[in-house]
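Quick one: examine this chain and its backbone structure tokens and tell me how the chain folds. Here goes:
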Amino acid sequence: MKNFDLIKQKVGRLKGDFNKVSRLYDIKVSLKEETDHAESVIYHRTQRYDERQAFIGGYVIRTSLTDWELQTTVQHYHRLTRLSQPLES
């Protein structure tokens, strides 16, 4: 591989450019013994990745109405979504 410092710099730049994604992975660049070259780039998913995966497809509905049950809140949310779709197009 190429120069160890150059690889570390490029990995750091990518982590900065893709900040939201980079938080989901641990990336390690290992130095080849007795050289200034990188031997390998290893990445692992973090626990945060697994936590984020659990919420894919889910959403949070925030409301100030405290007297509604969950099912009532969800029904009204879906009704409002259907009503607003023609206005958006």
About this structure: DSSP finds four helices and two strands in the chain.
